[in-house]
Amino acid sequence: MVVRGAVLRDRVREAVRGPGWQREDLLLQLKTVAAAVIAWSLASWLLSPRVTTFAPFTTLLAIQGTVHRSVQQSWRYLVAVTLGVLLAAAFGTTAGRHAWTLAVLLLVALALSRAQPLGAQRLQVPVTALFAFSAGNGEWNYGVELTAAVLIGTGCGLAAVLVLAPAVHHRDADRSVAYLAERVGDLAAGVARSLREGGPGQAETRAWWDEADALQASARQVRATVELGEENVRLNPRQLMNGGGLLRLPEHHGRVTALERAAHQLRSIVRGLDYAAGREDHPALAGDFLIPFAGLLEDISRAAHRLGDGVSGPPDAGGKREAGGAPRAEHGPGGSGRADADGDPVADGRRRAAELAENSRQADLRVPGEWPLYGALLTDARRALDDLARAPGPPWS
What residues form DSSP beta bridges with 321? Predict the structure, then answer.
């Protein structure tokens, strides 16, 4: 309980401090409460007490995280309630209130609830029909009042969403894509650093394997964040005052796809290195190919980091920018980057891959199974570079 209280205080503090999802969440809760109270007050003033609760209840359903989702759920709920009311009144006033009437009513309501346009609100058709038939005796007057209460709740909810529309920004999407790019780049850099230091061992390759798997899940989460940012634009009145500031979001899908594919290639590379680490002739093989291969991984790391920097903005003076805005230092040939940080990492990587393939053909690689393994590693690295090159972002060569 103490931990939850601390988390709540931290979220409130962040909401007060500046823009972000914490502030948007707090504002969503406040305007939901305000709209529900107004809806209840209007329904209490205009309608009979037996349907008053439906107004604030509808408001709770109407207000969603985005304007588009609020409008979508509101009309679906309104249509579902109207269908349920019409069915209950039609059966109640013609066939009367009997067990067999209720059975037929529910069968028809369940059949109508199959309508795909109603989405998640489709079950409201039989629920409303059952409630109006039982509590309202299937009377038309009750159905009209219930529908009026739903209209009041929907109106108050949509008014709150439109007047106090969520902010139109792409900050969360930018940060998510930049963070994914940073993780992909750091994985490639870590593998390269280990190769230069004479590794890796099988324990280290297994840890990289887990990180590569985690990147696949992270990519799905980042894509969901981008889609939420795009949804936040639809029907949002604040978009008109924003000057089209979300034009970069469609490009984020291409970036996420490129990073996800690059992570998949890195996973394949790690698998090959895990196999190589278990061979008895690993030290000899490392000198033939793996240490030079580290430079190619550094180019992949730089390309991924450059893609993230292109999302979060130009680098600060003195270093590259992390996903959260902190500068990231460049490293020399023995680290996770390259001294020529201003160069084109994709072009450098392609050139290095061609040189490495040519040198490997000329070298005396006679260990059984050596070139098939290293050829696969080289192919995976080239594919990672190609995936990153196709991403919207810096002007790759």
Answer: 327
